[in-house]
């Protein structure tokens, strides 16, 4: 086991060999893997991610942590390229080279009594652990989950076990025909905070609504990553400096979760 120290984390991430304990296909090119990951799972915080070596691919693939309990870690991802396609083909008993947990996650102390978790597409999975932890702390959370269509909808039952859930689809094939921002606009007055993960356009809209209603808002940004520990510039993101000028941070190290007011949305 090789220990790597990374600034900005609650603890140092660990590079170790985990074992695939379970595999499930959730939808078209959507997969879940459960990993035996002692230590790593216990250190994981909502909103963090792991960096996984995928076969012969040079760069690791960042995958958000969906669930962490005991010695088990669960990841949910979409097979989009060669690396994630290789990952989707792993079976129980296969080893995986995993680095994590990485990044700064959601600050649960800022959520209040009635937080709303807003997810879009593959941005939905990392919100499940955050919503579960919020409920364990005594909050009454709810979720708004957006998908392209009914066939792309995932994890709905697991979110419903934790609180009220609204589902939207772009094509109207399931739930509300529209966007998560439409539903959030209608319930923001009853919320105490917003936590969101999804495409940048969705996050921008959610941040705008939260600000208009005076709600604290945390957003998890999605960016391509190289090293995963802040040593390269691949995942640089524009942020607002105290002097009003744009500054740059790293999604992998400074995020992936940021205060929405800190992000330069232009």
Q: What would you note in describing this structure?
A:
The protein has 266 residues and is α/β, with parallel strands linked by helices. 18% of the residues lie in helices and 35% in strands. A 7-stranded mixed sheet has the order 11-10-9-8-12-13-16, sandwiched between helices. Strands 2-3-6-5-4-7 form a 6-stranded antiparallel beta barrel. The chain has a two-stranded antiparallel sheet with strand order 14-15. It is globular and about 50 Å long. The N and C termini lie far apart (42 Å).
Topology as H/E string? EEEHEEEHEEHEHEEHEHEEEE
Alpha carbon gyration radius:
18 Å
The mean pLDDT is: 91
Class by SSE composition: alpha/beta
State the shape.
Answer: globular
Note poorly predicted spans.
1-10
Biggest sheet: strands side by side, in what order?
11-10-9-8-12-13-16
Give the end-to-end Cα distance, rounded to a whole number of Å: 42 Å
Sheet of most strands: 7 strands, mixed
| Strand coverage percent | 25-35%
Tally of contiguous helical segments:
6
* Helix percentage range: 10-25%
Number of strands: 16
Itemize the secondary structure elements and their pairings.
Layout: E1 2-3, E2 14-27, E3 30-36, H1 40-43, E4 49-52, E5 61-69, E6 72-78, H2 82-88, E7 95-102, E8 115-120, H3 125-136, E9 142-147, H4 156-160, E10 164-169, E11 176-177, H5 180-187, E12 193-197, H6 200-212, E13 217-220, E14 236-240, E15 246-250, E16 257-259
Parallel strand pairs: 8-9, 8-12, 9-10, 10-11, 12-13
Antiparallel strand pairs: 1-2, 2-3, 2-7, 3-6, 4-5, 4-7, 5-6, 13-16, 14-15
Helix pairs in contact: 5-6
């Amino acid at each position: 086991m090789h220990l790597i120290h990374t600034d900005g984390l609650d603890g140092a991430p660990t590079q170790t060999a985990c074992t695939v304990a379970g595999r499930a296909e959730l939808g078209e090119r959507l997969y879940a893997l459960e990993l035996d990951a002692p230590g790593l799972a216990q250190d994981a915080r909502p909103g963090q991610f792991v960096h996984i070596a995928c076969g012969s691919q040079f760069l690791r693939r960042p995958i958000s942590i969906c669930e962490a309990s005991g010695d088990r870690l669960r990841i949910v991802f979409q097979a989009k390229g060669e690396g994630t396609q290789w990952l989707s083909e792993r079976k129980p008993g296969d080893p995986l080279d995993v680095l994590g947990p990485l990044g700064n996650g959601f600050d649960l102390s800022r959520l209040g009594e009635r937080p709303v978790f807003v997810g879009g597409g593959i941005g939905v999975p990392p919100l499940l652990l955050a919503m579960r932890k919020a409920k364990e702390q005594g909050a009454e959370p709810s979720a708004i989950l957006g998908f392209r269509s009914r066939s792309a909808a995932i994890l709905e039952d697991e979110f419903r076990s934790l609180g009220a859930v609204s589902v939207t689809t772009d094509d109207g094939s399931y739930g509300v025909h529209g966007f998560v921002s439409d539903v959030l606009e209608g319930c923001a007055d009853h919320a105490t905070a917003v936590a969101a993960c999804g495409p940048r356009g969705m996050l921008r809209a959610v941040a705008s609504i939260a600000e208009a209603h005076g709600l604290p808002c945390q957003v998890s940004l999605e960016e391509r990553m190289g090293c995963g520990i802040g040593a390269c510039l691949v995942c640089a993101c524009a942020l607002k400096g105290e002097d009003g000028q744009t500054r740059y941070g790293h999604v992998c190290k400074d995020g992936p979760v940021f205060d929405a007011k800190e992000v330069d949305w232009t």
